Amino acid sequence: MNLTYGFQLQGQHQEQSVGLYAIGHETQTEISYRWDGKHRSDQHCFVFQYTLSGSGAIKIADQIYHLTKNQAFWIEVPSDHCYYLPKDSNHWEFLYITLFGDTVHQIYQQLTQTHGHILTYAEQSPVIQLIQSTLNEVNQNKITNSYQASARSYQFLMTLLENSSEEQSINKKIPSSINHVLKFINDHFNQDISLDDCVKQSKLSKYYFTRQFSRYVGMTPIQYLSHIRIQKAIELLLNDSDPIEDVAKKVGFQNGNYFAKVFKKHTGKSPRSYRNARSSMPVDHWFIN
Q1: Which UniProt keywords apply (predicted)?
Q2: How many CB atoms within 10 Å of residue 64?
Q3: Is 286 helix (H, G, I), strand (E, B) or coil?
């Protein structure tokens, strides 16, 4: 049985950062299944669709890609593309998540320029498991406003950045020195970490380390640290009632004002506004197809 959820949630922060437009788990068996990226009524958005079984196809400009188990596409709507069930396939089972917002646009451009539109992930990878867990939460009515939806969507984007494509690990294996720093940041994000601390962990020169880190991770060490801290802060704001100053310290910011500035840059809202609005944010329309 197909599970498809669409969202129309109030909150200007979604356009400024990231919003959840749709999520679902479908199995298509009819040749009539076809989405033309130049002739859709959807708002400006970005579709990530992952193949669980069977096969599908997507045409991007003049190039056709055949998608089988563990392959995903990420595409902008509207754009010159069309995805469909090909004649030689008897079914296409997939998960998908559709997002919108300025932050999505930036990360989409960054990752597609580096990895292209076709990505490969194991079904047990963090990226795919996050889609599945978000779908389960939606199905259980645990996501009820735009702030919760944006938090999950932002977490998905950060997981994409962190994992990139598992295909990357074959073609461009991350050096052990960079992996060591990634683990160091994830384990110690709540401490006062500087670029020099990261360089020391890598045992490389500062110049070579910063170039290598940006090449393999897609952002600078300090940008990565900020992303991890904001992701953790969102989880605390959604689930705890600690004072904002305490949240800031728990995720590694010594100054609450600076934390608020960085948080607003990433999410479009101050931490206090985010927390105050999350439980009362009205839902315009919630539908299940």
Answers
A1: DNA-binding, Transcription, Transcription regulation
A2: 11
A3: strand
